[in-house]
């Protein structure tokens, strides 16, 4: 197995390369739900040497990380991961008694974690994607970020008020929460290079997968099916084995199968009510299984009068309806896969598509969304990625599937 090496640098001056043999473990997390990546390094600190010197370990110090193949390995010095301009968030001793064998944990993350400016501000009426772009690209904080792509949300232009909250809290609680795209939830998240995206699951599914993971191609017939599968997706990297655990359904989604809502429009004084259910928009092919949820149609019929109730007041009608749409994010992960596999640069950024192959005709073959990942690099140079993948519906084609009686499933 290929070995990797970590090269951290703090403030562009303190090179931890000399201490690389003392780094026990490095972990990096990212997820669509949290939106901001972070991680930590555990360093064996003999005689508290690093703490004694305390060179550039201040909160807010710039941290750059590079992961490359270990020297002497095939492809030596080829960068597989390069993170620049993150910041140190915290340091802590993680054993009971600091001393000869103490371990120092350096916690680091995206710069947005440290920006806590709570200056009040009123944003003029405009679409939510424009507000997000304006906040992220604001240079007055001394650091701006790039919004690489944004879906155009359904919301009408409306004034937004930032009051006693940070920029990130404002965006998450008062902008993203009131955004939907074609009646489906939206996510604001950053990749490991600090680029931001404001997308729906449908947009994420429209991307071409960069990698194929497989469970087991099996016999010759399975191998041929796997070869055909990889040719369809024409990814840049394939033949990556995986181990997995699948979860189907979640209690929040089931309890909100058909959510009854009552909206009090604060502009007209009128009251609106109805039933809101999931709306899959990931594929438009009528021959695909992407309209089918793992929910019995009879159960859906039983809850057609409402499985829960949501009362929304003090909002205009459009804002309240978008808030309702965005509250159904649990349906975006009706299927979740917890996967362990080897390190690959194609698995680093959440929101990307990954192609999975289980067996010939399997209903789970196809595209999945990378919801979260955890990159783990140990002291032996072994690198592993733990993934959480998700999709709202079944996958595959009606004509080539192992799934039977799909007609009894709830579908849109």
Strand-pairing-aware structural class: alpha+beta
- Averaged pLDDT, please? 81
User: Based on the structure given, which CATH architecture of the largest domain is correct?
Assistant: Beta Barrel
Shape: flat
Enter the CATH topology name of the largest domain. Elongation Factor Tu (Ef-tu), domain 3
CATH class of the largest domain: Mainly Beta
Range of helix content = 10-25%
Distance between the termini: 45 Å
Radius of gyration: 24 Å
Q: List how many beta strands DSSP finds.
A: 25
The description of the largest β-sheet is:
14 strands, mixed
Quaternary organization: single chain
* Approximate strand percentage: 35-45%
Overall number of structural domains: 4
Number of helices: 8
Low-confidence stretches: 72-78
Short description:
This protein is an alpha+beta fold and 412 residues long. Helices cover 15% and strands 40% of the residues.
Please, could you describe this protein's structure?
- With 412 residues, this protein is α+β, with helices and mostly antiparallel strands.
- The protein folds into 4 domains: 4-114; 121-202, Phage tail protein beta-alpha-beta fold, CATH 3.55.50; 207-248 and 333-411, Beta Barrel (Elongation Factor Tu (Ef-tu), domain 3); 251-328, no CATH class.
- The protein has 8 helices and 25 strands.
- Strands 1, 2, 3, 4, 5, 6, 7, 14, 15, 16, 21, 22, 23 and 24 form a 14-stranded mixed beta sheet that branches. The protein has a 4-stranded mixed beta sheet with strand order 9-13-12-11. It has a 3-stranded mixed beta sheet with strand order 18-17-20, with helices on one face.
- Strand 3 and strand 4 (38-44) form a beta hairpin.
- Residues 72-78 have low confidence and may be disordered.
